[in-house]
Write a structure and sequence with these properties.
Two copies of one chain form a homodimer. With 212 residues, the first copy, chain A, is mainly α. Chain A folds into two domains: 52 residues, Arc Repressor Mutant, subunit A (Orthogonal Bundle); 132 residues. Chain A contains ten helices and no strands. The longest helix of chain A is centred in the middle third of the chain and has 25 residues. The first copy, chain A, starts with 16 loop residues before the first helix and ends in an 8-residue tail after the last helix. Chains A and B meet through helix 7, helix 8, helix 9 and helix 10 of A and helix 7, helix 8, helix 9 and helix 10 of B. Chain A binds a DNA duplex (30 and 30 nucleotides) through helix 3.
Chain lengths: 212, 212
DNA sequence: CCGACTGCCAAACGAACGTTTGCTATAGGC
DNA sequence: GCCTATAGCAAACGTTCGTTTGGCAGTCGG
């Protein structure tokens, strides 16, 4: 009875913290897709199979629920965890692998980033703080990797400048993905992979090692 | 009486089309800052010095008002108009000038882009269409410039790849500006200028012409 | 001078919102 | 067995929303 399986018989399948987390997950998904103002407490309750009033047993207000969703720090650590592929390849494709790795991580927490970005556009202070944290972490992660794996690339302007450029580009790419500019459709990961290789090719051609 | 001066004595200072445009301008500013759902028709009417019902003399619904705001094509042509500075400088600083030019143009229509981006994040179809149009225009503009002014930079991956990368980076930079990641504060244009030079330095170092 | 038209407003409409109240029913420690 | 806490519900609260109604004051061609 203490499993994390979805509820089936109405009440008492998930207790306390588990139910709270379930509500957070549902809120993230719905708010990311329809916007915060476009998602009512009744919508959330309905999606969770609950009554509206029950939501207020777990969160004192809609605002607090949104803050709780935004401040789940797991999403940020997911994005800045040591990349799996970016350290094991040959130097020629290493940058592409790194960029692909970050983009894939962003894709896994897409709802979170969409929600954060949307709220940032509307001037939400909590989203500002969360966004800044995520940006700073990504920046530091990129910078560290560049210093270790591609020191030549940063000789002129320094690793900070290159990392800032790459970060802005990743943010822009993700936005274009959400906007449907990238022809994702069936496979966003593949589109990201192509873009990562493309960017790596542009930056790699600086050392005159030629294209593929 | 047919001037475009702001109203002073209450009624009858701006007629028909002029008043309609005034409402559009106000709606753009308010909706960009507080979001569409966060801006009520009463808010708009109050900001325009009008009664709510008067808005419905110019727009059949709030939705139609939003569409009218988003579909003002002037904003897009502003962004893709031939750049003033990017063709008159020495080759070394030409790319920085171009990027700075585009960023400055984006800054001039900041509200429009903020509104569009925010609605894209919420899945609005009209915003999708407008955003795609703007992205495509920027892409084409960048590509054209690269072919004319920096053909060497595109030798490996081609001008399309470089232009796509630059566009994503510009989008990301603008988002970071809105998110307050760039330390704008007093002078966003200056921060954009610095970033443009930084990026140009990274891309310029490919031909081995040294730093600044 | 007079109708039609335009621009504008006060007031109200029903619906949806966030939130609260008051009530059941189960679970677990004493 | 009781008693408190937990988890849940139906129903209602007051407010705000988008929108509509009906009417008033100027403008202008005839």
């Amino acid at each position: 009875m203490t499993q994390t399986s979805p509820p089936q018989s109405g009440h008492l399948t998930a207790t306390g913290t588990t139910q709270r987390q379930r509500i957070l997950d549902i809120a993230l998904a719905l708010m990311a897709q329809r916007g915060v103002d476009g998602t009512s407490m009744r919508d959330l309750a309905s999606a969770a199979g609950l009554n509206v009033a029950s939501l207020y047993h777990y969160f004192p207000s809609k605002r607090e629920l949104l803050v709780a969703v935004l401040e789940e720090r797991g999403f940020i650590s997911d994005l800045t965890s040591p990349s799996s592929a970016s350290l094991t390849r040959d130097p020629a494709g290493a940058l592409a692998d790194l960029l692909d790795d970050v983009l894939r991580s962003m894709l896994e927490v897409e709802d979170f980033i969409r929600l954060m970005m949307g709220e940032v556009m509307r001037g939400d202070e909590t989203a500002f703080a969360v966004g800044n944290e995520l940006f700073a972490a990504t920046q530091a992660s990129l910078e560290r990797w560049l210093e270790d794996s591609e020191p030549e690339m940063c000789q002129g302007p320094g690793p900070g400048a290159v990392a800032r450029m790459l970060r802005a580009m990743l943010v822009g790419l993700f936005f274009e993905h959400v906007a449907g500019v990238l022809d994702d459709g069936d496979d966003p990961a593949k589109a990201f992979r192509l873009r990562a290789e493309e960017v790596a090719a542009v930056l790699r051609s600086r050392s005159g090692s030629g294209g593929d």
